[in-house]
Design brief:
Blueprint: E1 13-17, H1 24-38, E2 45-51, H2 63-79, E3 84-90, H3 100-105, H4 110-126, E4 132-138, H5 146-151, E5 154-157, H6 163-179, H7 192-201, H8 207-221, H9 232-265
Helix pairs in contact: 2-4, 6-7, 6-8, 7-9, 8-9
InterPro entries: AAA+_ATPase (IPR003593), ATPase_AAA_core (IPR003959), ATPase_AAA_CS (IPR003960), P-loop_NTPase (IPR027417), Pch2-like (IPR044539), Pch2_C (IPR058249)
Protein name: AAA+ ATPase domain-containing protein
GO cellular component, one term: chromosome
Amino acid sequence: MDVDSNLVSCNRLILLHGPPGTGKTSLCKGLSQKMAIQLQDEYARALLFEVHTQALFSKFFSESAKLVGKTFSRIKSCAADKATLVFVLIDEVESLTSSREAALSGSEPSDAVRVVNAVLTQVDALRRFPNIFMMTTSNMTGAIDAAFVDRADIKQFIGPPPKPARRSILSSAVKELARAQIVDTFCPEKEAQELDRLAEVTDGFSGRLLRKLPFLTFSKLASTYDKQPLPSSEFLSEMVGVAGTERIVRGELASAEEKLRDNRGR
C-alpha cells in the first residue's frame, strides 16, 4: 500500500509477552516461516536474523551502543536486497530496552540508557525497509521502556496453555513414550479420565514444564523399569503425583523470591 509513513505509522514490530516457557520464541519462529511461505511470490528468499542480546553488552563504556549499531547495520545490509525478506528475532528484549526512567533513578549505569537510545534509533531506521519484520519476546513487560512498547504494532500476551491444550500436549508426550516402548500401548480414549485429571492438576503450568513432566515421571520410576513397557495407566497416575510435587516446589520458589524482593526493598 502506498501510504505516507509520516502520517500512518507502521513499524512492522511485534511484541509477545508473558511468563517463561509459554512458547513465545517458538511462535515467532513459526510465524516467520508461515509468512515466508505466504510471501514467496514477492520475495526470492527469506532470512531469520536472531539477535543474541547478551553478545551486545560490553564492559567498556559506550561500547554496547556501538555493538547495537553494528548488529542493525548487518540487518540493513541484508535487507538492502529487495528480493530478500528479513525477519529479526530479539528474545528477552527487556535486556536491551529496559526502562530509561528506572535506570536514571537507580544505580544502573548511563551506558544502559545509551543502549536503549541506540535500539530505538535503529527501530525507527528500519521503517524504511518494507521487507523487514521484527519480532520480540519478553518475560518482564513492565521493565521495558515505554517508548519501545509504543513502537510495537502488536502487543500480545501469551499465557499458559488452557486445559484442552494441556491435555493435547500431555497426550502427545505419552504417545511418544508409547512409540519408544517406554510405556505400553496408549489409547487417549481409554485413558480419558486420567488425562482429564492430569490436565486439571497442571493448571497454570507452562508448555515447557508440561513437556518435561514425562521425563520427571520416568526418572522417578526408573528403578522399576526393566526394559519392559510400563503400564500407561500407572504412568499417568504417577504423573499426577509428580505434577503435584512440581506445584509445591514452584510455590516455595515463588515465596522465596518474594521474600528476597521484600528484603531488598527495605
